[in-house]
Amino acid sequence: MAPHPQRLTVTHRAWPLKTPRGVETAVPIVVVEIADGDSRGRAECVPMRRFGESIESVLAALDAMKGAVSAGLARDTLQKAMPPGAARNALDCAFWAIEANRSYVTVAELAGLGAIKPVETAFTLAFDTPDAMAEQAAAHRTRPLFKLELGGEGDMERVRAVRQAVPAARLIVDANESWNERQLGEYMPMLLDARVELIEQPLPAGADDALAGMASPIPLCADESCRTVADLDRISGKYAAIAIKLDKVGGLTEALALAAEAKRRGLRIMVAGGIGTSLGVAPALLVAQGAEIADLDGPLRLASDRAAGLRYDGSTIHPADPKLWGGPG
What we know:
- By secondary structure, this protein is of the alpha/beta class.
- It folds into two domains: 7-104, 2-Layer Sandwich (Enolase-like, domain 1); 119-317, Enolase-like C-terminal domain (TIM Barrel, Alpha-Beta Barrel).
- 33% of the residues lie in helices and 22% in strands.
- It has twelve helices and 14 strands.
- The strands form three sheets. The chain has an eight-stranded parallel β-sheet.
- Helix 8 links the parallel strand 7 (170-174) and strand 8.
- The chain is globular, with a radius of gyration of 20 Å.
């Protein structure tokens, strides 16, 4: 129980994008803060439209939790009090931060992880024409790993154009549920030729039974098909890897549990995130400590980041400043 009654504050704002995505010029970010008079913890989330979330629904979900937070809700009881999603992620990560504050330790220490090490992130190439994606890649040719956002006619032209632009880089692709079984089979030789290392969510989440028992020469990674630990049985035999996103799984608590159980089952781990500030990436860095791939370049796609934001040295993300998130005091 907190030494003083806990108070939950919820705010939101639109953070301008560095480069517009179609008609979108900003990303909606919700920030929560839990304070008890002596300690505080804050965190952020971004609504996931793919799972039916909006800024309004996330704000309403958090507003509905204010009474429970005041009454002593804690991180362990939160897991059953809310479903997985962006709103629970913000609250969960804020609870981790305030627990660290109260205990005068870092969240990493609280989670039993020890010191956080730098992480290398993929650099995302937004879905565009083949020429535009190749141009994006060429402008960042020194980066070691690119993730291509795919999802439409001409996907193999996109892959070929990027491979030509950055012949030495590692490539992974995200099909965003846009292919069918026939296309996956047709594309595979071309993806192998382009030395693609991972294919994220090739088929729609509700139509991926066709992957069962498929001996894919390139590892397939479940994103929308795997939200929480409860989904691992259903994806067994279909995927070799899972993508863990804090807004999707509903917080650091579930993310750590999912990563541990997935590893126990022999699955590879990718830790990913959408576009957001360093406050959203900082908790994901803890999960990324045990992941093979990190896709956490969200802050680089904003016009500006938070004060005391994460330091990106090329594609290397350095541990968070305690003032940002996860530090004691």
